[in-house]
């Protein structure tokens, strides 16, 4: 009887393990959703209350479950969210993901041409773009009409709301000259900075109202009670995901859309992060 119970227990554990593996390696990575956030930011002009920013990070087009068809779904879902501004936070191509199929940056950028927003669509480059061919990726995006802000600033406006959008190069591979980018800011309007890698955040001055990044994929795997075993950051889980406030400075890290290294996601589903801005100091997740 004891042997029979042990055998039943082993089969049950094997079934649970198989189910978890199916979820982590097939079901969750293939998912897609808009995730809405409200970020209350001190110093934000009241006329910008409700401005919506869609963040598309780590597309990794060609990684498993993230082919051109998925990219079209991402674009359609982004447009359905009716954002006022769209930020593409780097890593458009894949670099060595098992089971993936390379998609040229020109094809990716051609699809991204379908994005539109009143305040514009802007991009920065990520480490995978640099590892592949950063000039080619940048040229493809710009040929598609998407400005790439590498250590550069652009003033954006919608109605009475205006602020500076500052793009900073990738922390690992780009120049990431925050000072040069902020030198293009010519007045006291709020500054939203976006970059690929959040490890840049400790160097961001208080002049910046909000920093936005991707890169970490939220660790791709979250184990309750344990945390995120692998986060590609020298700060570990400090900047792994979501809203972070340090010394009054605000950072938002999107968990992104694709996968790298391993085609797995567990309790970190792919998402288009849609951030609504509001004056204040805390993050509130809508019900």
Could you tell me the radius of gyration in angstroms?
Answer: 20 Å
Sheet with the most strands, sense and barrel status: 6 strands, mixed
Elements, N to C (H/E): HEEHEHEHEEHEEEEEE
Report the principal-axis shape.
Answer: globular
Number of strands: 12
Structure, explained:
The chain has 287 residues and is of the alpha/beta class. The protein is 24% helix and 22% strand. The protein has helices at residues 2-27, 68-80, 105-112, 127-143, 178-182, and strands at 33-41, 52-56, 85-88, 121-123, 152-158, 161-167, 191-194, 210-213, 242-246, 249-253, 271-279, 283-284. The strands form two sheets. Strands 4-3-2-11-1-12 form a six-stranded mixed beta sheet, covered by helices on one side. Strands 5-6-7-8-10-9 form a six-stranded mixed beta sheet. Helix 2 (68-80) packs parallel to helix 3. Residues 12-18 and 281-287 have low confidence and may be disordered.
Set down the secondary structure blueprint.
Blueprint: H1 2-27, E1 33-41, E2 52-56, H2 68-80, E3 85-88, H3 105-112, E4 121-123, H4 127-143, E5 152-158, E6 161-167, H5 178-182, E7 191-194, E8 210-213, E9 242-246, E10 249-253, E11 271-279, E12 283-284
Parallel strand pairs: 1-11, 2-3, 3-4, 6-7, 7-8, 8-10
Antiparallel strand pairs: 1-12, 2-11, 5-6, 9-10
């Amino acid at each position: 009887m004891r042997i029979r119970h042990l055998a039943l227990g082993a089969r049950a554990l094997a079934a649970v393990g198989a189910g978890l593996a199916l979820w982590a390696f097939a079901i969750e990575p293939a998912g897609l959703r808009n995730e809405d956030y409200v970020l209350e930011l001190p110093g934000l002009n009241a006329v910008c209350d409700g401005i919506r920013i869609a963040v598309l990070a780590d597309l990794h087009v060609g990684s498993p479950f993230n082919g051109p068809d998925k990219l079209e779904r991402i674009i359609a879902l982004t447009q359905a969210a009716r954002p006022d501004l769209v930020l593409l936070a780097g890593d458009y191509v894949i670099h060595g993901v098992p089971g993936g199929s390379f998609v040229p940056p020109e094809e990716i950028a051609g699809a991204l041409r379908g994005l539109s927003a009143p305040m514009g669509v802007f991009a920065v480059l990520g480490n995978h773009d640099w590892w592949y061919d950063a000039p080619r990726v940048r040229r493809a995006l710009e040929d598609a009409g998407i400005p790439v802000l590498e250590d550069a600033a652009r003033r954006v406006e919608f109605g009475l709301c205006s602020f500076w959008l500052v793009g900073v190069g990738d922390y690992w591979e780009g120049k990431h000259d925050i000072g040069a980018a902020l030198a293009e800011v010519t007045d006291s309007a709020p500054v939203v900075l976006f970059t690929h890698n959040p490890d840049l955040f400790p160097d961001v001055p208080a002049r910046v109202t909000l920093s936005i990044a991707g890169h970490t994929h939220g660790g791709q795997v979250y184990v309750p009670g344990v945390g995120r075993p692998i986060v590609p950051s020298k700060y570990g889980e400090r900047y792994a995901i979501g809203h972070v406030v340090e010394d009054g400075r605000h950072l938002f890290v999107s968990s992104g859309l694709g996968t790298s290294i391993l085609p797995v996601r567990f309790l970190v589903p792919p998402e288009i992060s849609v951030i609504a801005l509001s004056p204040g100091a805390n993050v509130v997740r809508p019900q």
